[in-house]
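EI: anyone free to look at a 166-residue chain?
SC: sure, send it
EI:
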Amino acid sequence: MPAYKATLRYSYPLIRKVAMSYAQRQLGRSTIVSVLLMTGGLGFVCYAGYSSSFFQIIGLVLIGCLGFYFWYEYEIKRQWLDTLRRMGNPEAELIVTDESFQVSSGAGSSTIPWNQFVDIWRYDDFWLLFLTKFGRPLTIPLKDVDPNVLRLIEERIAQFKKSTGF
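SC: here you go
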């Protein structure tokens, strides 16, 4: 099968959106909602006049959880924006064949066989391709990518996911 080529164009707003989506999916939106609800409940209990060291400890734990959540999201965003800056020109060349996935940019180049991918997270504006379950994924902006390229990526990763049990 012939190689499909695409130029991937990155931007700061896209990378911010990718980082936020990644952090929220890693930690879960339910995490922040539950911490905020617990904080509201604790605030109500304190407002009602209950005060004890137990509630103070719970309050400190909740503040720590909120701090960690926002720190994690900030750190992910910072790392990915640093990568975008290192690229210089915010474009990458993508070549997709039946055997491999090749991407090259100002930050470097890599050829990855399909059996190395373990998952795809699909969003409206981008896809995240994972080489490990918890590692940092490759970002594919969908704006200028031919649907045939996306279909081939999806088929090849699904084929190897099925055969490896991921």
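EI: The first helix runs from residue 12 to 27.
SC: 👍
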